[in-house]
Design brief:
The chain has one domain: TIM Barrel (Alpha-Beta Barrel). It is built from nine helices and eight strands. Helix 6 links the parallel strand 5 and strand 6. The longest helix is centred in the last third of the chain and has 22 residues.
Length: 234
């Protein structure tokens, strides 16, 4: 990364997204590049903002809060993409512009109560464990329709789609299968509801081109944009 600017990395990543779109006949405008700034200082976020980006992903609710407070008034929106414990729902309710990792009905209800108290609504994505790995968060695909019905009773949650983390594997077919499960689930939910669930957040630095080819509308890119993280993370 030495000598390479964040703006250059963003441009290169965007070009790869656009090329993946072209391969499958998609419009590049259908896919958001969400820079993931977790563990990186706000100075790097400001550099990325100067390159034209105003939404950033964070995994830890405390870090999201701290950056949101430090950069208040800059026009940046913060997207929580990591696991959220119910006892930290207040942080997400107060500071997140979107929550992409809703992985239990109980958490949704806790978040909803916080949002109602604040008079806010929050776009959320339901996290799905498409790889079946025990270490990963998210609903099993078979449990998602019932969970979505239960979350529909929440007044302040705007369920806009689904999120997944594919298996970390050099086997492209295994990665693609994870994304295919999410696409199939989206289709079933749309059939049952008569539409909606338009957002598919899938694809990270190691697999985002496959994700775009499979229909992702949001790719979450950390190391591709900001380089190696200063500390280990999920």
């Amino acid at each position: 990364m030495e000598g390479v600017t964040i703006a250059a990395n963003l441009h290169a990543a965007r070009s790869r997204i656009d090329a993946a779109c072209a391969r499958v006949g998609r419009a590049p405008s259908e896919v958001e590049l969400l820079p993931v700034s977790k563990t990186h200082p706000v100075s790097r976020v400001v550099e990325a903002q100067a390159a034209g980006y105003a939404r950033f992903g964070e995994s830890r609710p405390q870090e999201l809060r701290d950056k949101a407070v430090e950069l208040t008034g800059t026009g940046i929106d913060w997207v929580l993409i990591g696991h959220l414990q119910s006892n930290k729902a207040k942080l997400a309710a107060e500071h997140a512009a979107e929550f992409q990792a809703l992985d239990s009905v109980a958490l949704g209800e806790a978040l909803d109560r916080r949002l109602v108290a604040l008079g806010r609504r929050l776009p959320v994505l339901v996290e799905v464990n498409t790889s079946g790995e025990e270490a990963k968060h998210g609903f099993a695909p078979a449990d998602v329709p019932a969970a979505v019905r239960a979350l529909g009773a929440c007044d302040a949650l705007d369920v806009r789609g689904l999120m997944t983390i594919a298996v970390n594997s050099p086997d492209a077919a295994a990665v693609r299968a994870c994304f295919e499960r999410l696409v199939d689930l989206q289709a079933r939910l749309r059939d049952a509801a008569g539409g909606g669930f338009d957002t598919l957040s899938m694809g990270m630095s190691g697999d985002f081109e496959i994700a775009v080819e499979m229909g992702s509308t949001c790719v979450r890119l950390g190391t591709t944009i900001f380089g190696a993280r200063p500390s280990s993370d999920r």
